[in-house]
Design goal:
With 404 residues, this protein is mostly helical. The chain has a single domain (19-201, 218-398), classed as Growth Hormone, Chain: A, CATH 1.20.1250.20. 75% of the residues lie in helices and 0% in strands. The protein has 15 helices and no strands. It has helices at residues 21-43, 45-51, 56-83, 89-106, 110-137, 143-172, 181-204, 222-258, 262-290, 292-301, 304-309, 315-330, 332-343, 348-376, 379-386. The chain is globular, with a radius of gyration of 20 Å. The two termini are 36 Å apart. The chain crosses the membrane at residues 21-44, 56-79, 86-104, 110-128, 149-170, 176-198, 225-245, 265-283, 295-313, 319-340, 347-369, 381-399. Keywords: Membrane, Transmembrane, Transmembrane helix. Residues 23-404 form the Major facilitator superfamily (MFS) profile domain. This is MFS transporter.
Length: 404
């Protein structure tokens, strides 16, 4: 792997050129492929639950292994790549996901399922911090737009995974997961090309000087910065703990409450995830135009009326409400990430690793906790309990206003 050394100040410079949409498109596509692979795991939970005779707690543990592997390593990867960017590390991350995917297709014990989940999580840990930096470098100063384009690829992949699983894996069985290795191989090819662009870009900014137009440090004390990060992480907790109830258990909720077949429940999960993808693409540009804080505030707290109504809705209104929830709630992440980058300029990899990693960790913790709650109570109780999580959005009122 070729390692290029650069100065942290290079990440502080505002690139006033036009966004490099070819690179942003390639990053979005690779994010789609990466998250499509990841989303196969929860998408086939009903199949694994029957085939391996698992309870909800064991299903939650699979998600916990995947999410914690990704979350614990991501900040460390981001911190390292802030110091020494690694243009082709993303290729190795995708290769780890490929190995995990192949192992998942042939696993015959619960232990093998956990190892496969860990390998896919490792691939995610390597992918996100450096890909976040690449998206910012290619943004041309339109940071929210760049993050939305990058993140919507991940949302699209997460939405496509359950849909493809419904039509390929569910009817053909566990071994058919191997067909998705084509997605990983495509990702490796795309990331090789992006790595070459990144290497050239780093070579052109390897000896930067601070100048007018650089991103200023926020006028906040160290304690205020730490407190602000804590608030942002609390909002991430609210968002991803709630989202875990959908990614891991929404199909079970639909099957149990409305008596739907597995394939049809996967289609409704796709509808929800598609709405989340639309929310992601809107959140960044709106934040560029009106500021990050209003988007964060509206996204987290504004979803509360819909989450409170969901447990009491019939099937038609359940679909309508989940579309609204996905659309509104997903718009927060691009705004939160760019806000954090403005809070810690020059630490783009660390910010990406910390926030994506924490998001994955909370998703994994949510899956494990909610699985146990479902075993001890009911799957309906889970959605009634989670409906109040958006109240944490009130904490957004304490976020300081940063320059755009």
């Amino acid at each position: 792997m070729q390692v290029v050394t650069t100065q942290p100040d290079s990440a502080r410079r505002l690139d006033t050129t036009a966004p490099t949409f070819a690179v942003l498109g390639a990053l979005s596509l690779s994010h789609l492929l990466n998250d499509l692979i990841q989303s196969l795991l929860p998408a086939i939970y009903p199949l694994l639950k029957t085939g391996f005779r698992l309870d909800f707690g064991q299903i939650g543990l699979i998600t916990l292994v995947f999410q914690l592997t990704a979350s614990v390593l991501q900040p460390l990867v981001g911190l390292q790549t802030d110091r020494r960017p690694m243009p082709f590390s993303l290729v190795l991350g995708m290769a780890s996901s490929l190995v995990g995917l192949m192992l998942l297709s042939v696993a015959w014990t619960y232990g093998m399922l956990l190892i496969a989940a860990g390998l896919v999580g490792l691939g995610s840990a390597v992918f996100h911090p450096e890909a976040t930096r690449m998206a910012r470098l290619a943004s041309g100063g339109r940071f929210g737009l760049a993050q939305s384009l990058f993140q919507v690829g991940g949302n699209a992949g997460t939405a496509l995974g359950p849909l493809l699983a419904a039509f390929i894996v569910v009817p053909k069985g566990q071994s058919s997961i191997a067909w998705f290795s084509l997605a990983a191989l495509t990702g490796i090819g795309v990331l090789t090309l992006v790595g070459r662009w990144y290497r050239k870009r780093l070579a052109g900014t390897a000896r930067p000087t601070r100048r007018a137009g650089s991103v200023p440090e926020p006028d906040l004390s160290q304690g205020e910065i730490v407190a602000t990060i804590a608030i942002l992480l609390a909002l991430i907790f609210s968002k991803y703990f709630y989202m875990a109830s959908f990614s891991s258990y929404y199909t079970f909720y639909l099957i149990h409450r409305f008596g739907l077949p597995v394939a049809e429940s996967q289609v409704y999960l796709f509808v929800f995830l598609g709405a989340a993808a639309a929310g992601t693409i809107l959140g960044g540009p709106i934040g560029d135009r009106f500021g990050r804080k209003p988007v964060i505030w509206t996204s987290i707290l504004g979803v509360l009326p819909f989450t409170l109504a969901l447990p009491h809705a019939d099937l038609v209104w359940t679909v309508i409400l989940t579309v609204a929830i996905g659309l509104i709630l997903a718009s927060a992440m691009p705004a939160i990430l760019v806000y954090a980058q403005e809070l810690l300029p020059g630490r783009i990899g660390l910010v990406g690793g910390l926030f994506f990693g924490f998001a994955f960790g909370m998703g994994g913790l949510g899956a494990a906790v909610l699985g146990e709650v479902a075993d001890r109570t009911s799957i309906e109780f889970v959605y009634g309990f989670c409906a109040y999580l958006p109240l944490i959005g009130l904490a957004a009122a304490f976020l300081p206003k940063l320059g755009r």
